[in-house]
Amino acid sequence: MRKMSSKKQPIIPLNVLGAQILDAVKLSDDNGVIAYLLSGQIVFWNRGAEQIYGYSSSEALGKNFMNLVVAKENRNKFQMIIKRVLKGERVSEHSLLRRTKSGAHKFVSLTASGLRDNAGKIIGVLSIARDVSEQLKTYQDKLRMAASVESSEDAIYGRDLSGRITSWNEGAEKIYGYSREEVLGKDSKLIFPENSKGQYNKLRESIKRDEAIRNFETVRVRKGGKRIMVSLTVSPIKDDRGNIIGCSVVARDITEKKIAEQSQEMLSKASKLLASSLDYGKTLKEIARLIVPKLADWFAIDLIVDGKREMAVLAHQDPKMVKLALMLRTKYPLNESSGASRVMKTGKAEFYPVITSEMIEAHAKDAEHLRLIKKIGFSSAIVVPLKVHSTILGAMTLVYSTAGKHYTQADPVFLEELARRIATAIDNARHYATAEHELSERSAMEEKLRQFIESTSDAFVSFDKEWRYTYMNKNAEYYEGVKFEDVQGKVIWEMFPESRNKLFYEKYHEVMKARKKIEFEEFLQNKWFEIRAYPVKDGGIALHYNDITGRKLDEQRKDEFISMASHELKTPITSIKLYTELLLKKVKDKTATQHLSSMFEQVNRLSKLINDLLDVSRIQAGKLIFKKQFFDLGLLIADIAEILGKTSKKHSIITSVHLAGKVWGDKDRVGQVIINLIGNAIKYSPSGGDIIIVASKIKDNVIVNVQDFGIGLYSHDKDRIFERFYQIKGGTFPGLGIGLYIAKMIVEGHGGKIEVKSRVNEGSTFIFTLPQHMSM
Predict the structure, then answer these.
(1) pLDDT class for 8, splitting at 50, 70, 90?
(2) Is 700 helix (H, G, I), strand (E, B) or coil?
């Protein structure tokens, strides 16, 4: 090949280059058509070349092609192209690096052929170039994306709008167990659990609406039927026109994470149960209810008591199965060389991930034994020792009998921790039972009890008969915020004067005086405690504080459940009421009408009870809502009096209203108060008579009096009549004791107050005020 010269040579006229360049130019202005001699001198440079390289025709013509646009990295390749062209070859290269006028680099796709003179001799090169930088970048991005998808540990797959799987990476094969060949073209329902049609359709509709779904946690099914927890991110896939054609799904297996979370939650619940009582017999039954059926179909705890094995708990969802198992144990005593017996001897857990029929047959003593074992069912089991340090207290057994359920390698670790906590609770309970029994009987046991008390999570305090501190453990120091060394020998009322106004002050004095044990609950230091106070030999008292805040929170959740249940009952009760009213209008039979009227009355009572329960729940949660507006209180009183007057033939309801303008408040809630007070007046004046309602305005207050001439109240009842669930002792009038409590909360919610004036056999007058200004 001739050496290229940078010496400027004359430009060859276009008519000399002939049809070669004309044919190339016709291709497109998008193509860069360039002709240069063997010396490198550019002799033709079209508009496409200007767009690709940035040089105008006048800037490029006559310049050396290699020096002008060929990147240093590609110069050896450029020389090879020239050699091939000189041999008469037509050369195609798809990604050559070229330099532009701005100094930036581009990738071009190149076709190069010989430029011939009229005699057919190759005198240069005719090059046609296309800018492929963007295409190459897109292609490389796709390659990187493909490599990322394929190497991802997550399951990444695509599905069309009909639900068919269109792509499936290696991560999906690992997580779901299906190969590409097994799932491509199949409906994605094959990885959905049964009874999940609703979720399947909902996800599909979300994609059609162009809605992405992120971090959605749900259940999917592996090949073979095993359920796994996954976190899903689902994104719509669109075609070039923006039409949604399917979706991509990224699924992360979070089964182990969820199991760990559930295990931690289970341990937390178990710890609360174990700490809630020192009666471990009762507590172990609660633990069994916690475990069955979430962690096992069968749950058993065997304890070593006085050197002998005793069954403490045997649990199954079906009581009939428990009876069968007890009968089996009686007829065929457990083998002392296997299962729980062996674990209690060795102190080592035993794990049976899969129990085969061969294993069961080998264990059976005869045909009847085999039949009973198969009826109970065993598919997987774990037996864990109950140990405190090196002492074995017993063994805990968990069994799956449902086909397909098996324990995994992760389960023994969690269950051993659960067993450790159970064993500690049993050990503490046994120690405590012994200590509590001997505390007032044998002073020789005091040191042993002190050691136990110091190691427990409860608080212990003791006083002598002069109320001086004689003992306080570390937890008591924490709760009371003082050190024992700072209070020892000091009187409690000197250290905490405000204690004299507390409930426990009275309780402690009762123990000191009556010399008997008392148990009660008290809210102290932002926690709930179960307090046991019992007398000791020196005339003083000992106190045991057990933190039951967790239990109280559980009770609060139960209250919330009652609230929810009451709320859910409203709809069917309303429907029954409406249908009863409809039947009363249509049925003409007298007997049927009487029955329907009785039914309607009972439905009304039930409806009021449900509404009262809902109000109590709302009050306890601080969610009693008031919808305040201006309303005519006088008209409201008149309407209620007229309606309630029809319910009793023995009573006359007399109203005296002296109000001008309207009152600001919740009309329905104020009406609820008036209805309750009139209803009580009717109920507690069974002999009949007048009920007088007076409403007037004094300064900025609206005052309403509801007076009856019935049985009246004793003074001790007057003081407590507005308490929640308070009922008059020895009364013959049924009720829950919540009506007046709700009335009080409503009135106080309006910034007013309610009170009662009453004497036995002279009747009662209930007075409530509303301090809001009246509108004129």
Answers:
(1) very low
(2) coil
143-158 average pLDDT score: 65
Q: Which of 248, 246, 250 is nearest to 160 (CA)?
A: 246
11 φ/ψ angles, rounded to the nearest 5 degrees: -75, 135
Answer for the pair 274, 287: CB distance below 8 angstroms, yes or no: yes
Question: What are the φ/ψ torsions at residue 705 (nearest 5 degrees)?
Answer: -115, 135
The reported pLDDT for the residue numbered 472 is: 86
Question: What single-letter amino acid sits at 97?
Answer: L
Query: In Å, how far are 446, 460, 462, 533, 738 from 515, measured between CA atoms?
Result: 19, 18, 14, 10, 37
User: Cβ(496)–Cβ(504) under 8 Å?
Assistant: no
pLDDT digits (tens, 9 = 90+) for 507-533: 787 887 878 888 887 777 778 888 888
Q: What is the mean pLDDT of residues 140-165?
A: 69
Q: Which residue reads 């003074």 in tokens? A: 715
In this prediction the pTM is 0.35
Cα dihedral 744, 745, 749, 751 in deg (nearest 10): 30
Residue 2: is its pLDDT beyond 60? no
Instruction: Report the C-alpha gap between 545 and 118 in whole angstroms.
Output: 114
pLDDT for the residue numbered 554: 67
User: What is the Rg, in whole angstroms, of the alpha carbon atoms belonging to the chain?
Assistant: 45
Residue type, 634: G
Q: Is 757 helix (H, G, I), strand (E, B) or coil?
A: strand
Tokens of 628: 């305040």
Q: Is the pLDDT of residue 552 over 80?
A: no
Cβ contact 273:286 at 8 Å? yes
Q: How confident is the model at residue 448 (pLDDT cuts 50, 70, 90)?
A: low
The DSSP output letter for 225 is S
Rounded CA-CA distance 626/354 in Å is 61
Written as six digits, the tokens of 149 are: 């998808």
Q: What are the φ and ψ backbone dihedral angles of 209, each rounded to 5 degrees?
A: -85, 10
Q: How many C-beta atoms lie closer than 10 Å to residue 38's C-beta?
A: 19
Token reading at 129: 């170039």
For 48-73, b/e burial (b = at least 16 CB within 10 A) is: bbbebbbbeeeebeebbbbebbbbee
Per-residue DSSP letters for 145-204? HHHHHHH-SSEEEEEETTSBEEEE-HHHHHHH---HHHHTTSBGGGGSPTT-HHHHHHHH
Among candidate residues 650, 616, 562, 630, the one with its CA nearest the CA of residue 736: 616
- φ, ψ for residue 356 (rounded to 5)? -90, 165
> Which of the pair, 443 or 190, is modelled with greater confidence?
190
Q: What's the pLDDT at 694?
A: 94
Q: What is the dihedral sign for C-alpha 31, 37, 42, 45?
A: negative
Total Cβ atoms within 10 A of residue 339: 19
Question: Half-sphere exposure of 644 toward its Cβ, with a 13 Å CA cutoff?
Answer: 27
Specify which of 34-38, 555-559, 640-644 reaches the highest per-range mean pLDDT.
34-38
- Inter-residue contact 421 to 385 (CB < 8 Å): no
In whole angstroms, what is the distance from residue 116 CA to residue 122 CA?
4
Q: Do the beta carbons of residue 608 and residue 566 sit within 8 Å?
A: no
The span from the CA of 212 to the CA of 216, in Å, is 11
464-486 residue pLDDT tens: 888 888 888 888 888 778 888 88
- In 3D space, the residue among 717, 706, 715 whose CA is nearest the CA of residue 677 turns out to be 706
Lowest mean pLDDT: which of 198-202, 324-328, 442-446, 711-715? 442-446
* 3-state SS class at 250: strand
- First-residue to last-residue Cα distance in the chain: 112
Give 612-644 as a 3 state SS string.
HHHHHHHHHHCCCCCCCEEECHHHHHHHHHHHH
How far, in Å, CA of 47 to CA of 518, rounded?
104
| Average per-residue pLDDT for the chain | 80
Give per-residue pLDDT as tens, 637-688.
998 888 888 878 889 999 999 887 788 888 888 888 998 899 889 988 988 8
